[in-house]
TrEMBL record:
This is Extracellular small neutral protease. It catalyses: Hydrolyzes proteins with a preference for Tyr or Phe in the P1' position. Has no action on amino-acid p-nitroanilides. One of its GO terms (cellular component) is extracellular region. SUPFAM superfamilies: Metalloproteases ('zincins'), catalytic domain. Belongs to the peptidase M7 family. The lineage of its organism: Bacteria, Bacillati, Actinomycetota, Actinomycetes, Streptosporangiales. One of its GO terms (molecular function) is zinc ion binding. It holds the Pfam family Peptidase_M7. It comes from Actinomadura rubrisoli. Its EC number is 3.4.24.77. The keyword Disulfide bond does not apply. One of its GO terms (biological process) is proteolysis.
Amino acid sequence: MSFRKILTALAVTLGLAFALPAPAIGSASAAAPVAVRTIYYDASQAQEFKAAVDEGAAAWNKAVPAIELKPATGAQATIKVYADNGWPRAIPQGFGRGTVYMGRQAVNDGFYPPRIAAHELAHTLGLPDNRNGRCDYLMSGHSSPTSCKTTTPHETEAAQVRRNAGGRVPATLAGQLQYADCFKF
Ligand SMILES: [Zn+2]
């Protein structure tokens, strides 16, 4: 066997070794339907913020097709949204579960209600606060200026929620948590 033939044989062997698992993975993921996790939220007691909550939920649905936040009332709803005069806050109780308060204090400071809603809903989807000062991150909270009206999650935030929806329970959803300083200076 010539040196060239040995190289060719080696390349074919290596090529096969690397190529073989790929079609198996590809066909498996192509065959498996994407399971959408429907999460019901009750914003019927969110008073003047009901539309803002719907907008925040829609932003998440668009960014993460694996989840669908749907309005509902009663026991079906695993996320309850209220309005009060305090600071916006969230008490997550598992993926897609918890209580959200649309606090008027941040709205009075000038923060954009749909962005507040998208931020607080994100806590119930397993995202922690991330005060990096960037408007393109929902979780930057009060570290972004009040002029920031973005409701679209950053790709890294959407990716984290996608992973959380896939069943990995993040530390941000374990134990007794309360996010209360989201928009509080
Ligand atoms: Zn927060």
